[in-house]
Q: What sequence folds into this?
């Protein structure tokens, strides 16, 4: 079979599905087949460094198209004692990836008798994201954040990923998901390396508040149902989740502040 040639107006460009259509190899889905699979998606997560370690935070909403599919999804999950993962993207593959990641870290610890280095954990997660690429090409994208406390360097560290498994270390903060633009801007304006724990948690709360205010896929605090974001710190003492009681008080104060501005 010779290579096909196209006139300028009929060039499919870099799209492989379009190329199949042009050469007559594309088959239409049968009548009544499901062509638009709406699956739950997780949205906004952030992580930032502060004086003693890192803070990770994520809202609780998962959406399927224009519908709220879950109100209490936990997108920020403890990977082991000194690290955590936050997910954005297709919820099912993301949760499966996190469970496998947790299992691998636990297995390494039991076999070797010590923790895998934080850099090694970031590399392992990168390989898992890369392994999800075929599903990502079909629309089931998983884009995690990874953060933890590096026992060797005695400091908190952050990594972002792309769908191909590329990992990128961030030195101050990182945000992902549909509300990342708004959340990231709040953190960018308020962040400095000398933040203490209380100030870092407060900044994460405000970042998610602004993201929820501007992005419909990001869930804000729900005092009626008692639903608040998942926010945790990771320091030399390990993972510690911020209680809902603490978060409720913080969001009451933020709401009052916003009310006085209007």
A:
């Amino acid at each position: 079979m010779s290579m096909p040639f196209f006139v300028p107006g009929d060039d499919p460009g870099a799209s492989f599905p379009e190329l199949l259509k042009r050469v007559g190899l594309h088959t239409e889905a049968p009548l009544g087949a499901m062509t638009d699979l709406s699956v739950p998606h997780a949205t906004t997560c952030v992580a930032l460094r502060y004086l003693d370690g890192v803070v990770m935070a994520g809202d609780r909403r998962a959406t399927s198209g224009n519908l709220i599919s879950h109100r209490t999804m936990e997108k920020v999950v403890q990977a082991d004692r000194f690290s955590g993962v936050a997910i954005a993207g297709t919820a099912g593959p993301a949760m499966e990836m996190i469970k496998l990641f947790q299992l691998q870290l636990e297995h390494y610890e039991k076999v070797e008798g010590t923790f895998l280095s934080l850099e090694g954990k970031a590399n392992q997660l990168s390989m898992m994201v890369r392994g999800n690429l075929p599903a990502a090409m079909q629309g089931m994208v998983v884009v995690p954040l990874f953060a933890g406390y590096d026992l060797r360097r005695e400091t908190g560290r952050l990594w972002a990923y792309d769908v191909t498994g590329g990992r990128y270390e961030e030195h101050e903060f990182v945000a992902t998901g549909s509300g990342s633009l708004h959340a990231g801007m709040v953190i960018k304006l308020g962040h400095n390396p000398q933040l203490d724990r209380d100030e870092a948690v407060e900044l994460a709360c405000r970042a998610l508040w602004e993201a929820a205010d501007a992005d419909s896929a990001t869930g804000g605090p729900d005092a009626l149902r008692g639903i608040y974001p998942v926010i945790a710190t990771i320091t030399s003492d390990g993972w510690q989740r911020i209680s809902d009681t603490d978060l409720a008080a913080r969001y009451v104060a933020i709401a009052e502040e916003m009310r006085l501005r209007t």
About this structure: The CA atoms of residues 44 and 177 lie 4 Å apart.
